[in-house]
Amino acid sequence: MSKFILECEEEGFDAAPVEEYFSSAVDSDAEICAELVFTDEEGIRDLNRRERDKDAVTDVLSFPNLDGIKGKPLRKADFPYDLDEEGRLFLGSVVVCEARAREQAEEYGHSLRRELYYLIVHGLFHLLGYDHEDEMEKAEMRREEERALSAMNIARDKV
Fold this sequence. Notes:
This protein is an alpha/beta fold. The protein has a single domain (4-151), classed as Metalloproteases ("zincins"), catalytic domain (Collagenase (Catalytic Domain)). Helix content is 42%, strand content 17%. A four-stranded mixed beta sheet has the order 1-2-4-3. Helix 3 packs across helix 4 and helix 4 crosses helix 5 (135-151). The protein starts with a strand and ends in an 8-residue tail after the last helix.
């Protein structure tokens, strides 16, 4: 079992459920880390415009550091230039728009907590190589997301 570290400076955010799940779900001989950033609508729109050439607010953006890793064991030896100063393998960054998460939680009829964790898990699966470009990929990614949220005891609770 690898150790997964979710680096987040947001006060009050509990990364433990995410770290526990991904520590057991990712096959690695290295400590793995990812960055989580919360931002507002202006911040995510700016990132979306600069990085994806889309001038729109979105709920979550992922910036993977590694390519071609979906379903593969992550070995330090395969990524010697992707280790941070502490020897951890850096997967990338996930940026979540809190305002959009709040709107979606209300729209879908569940708690803000559930929506935030869903967006974080969604972003982390992108870092691990999952995507939803077609219906088959979308269904596979959704299964993995629901498996993770279920293991983390984050249900589709009502507000």
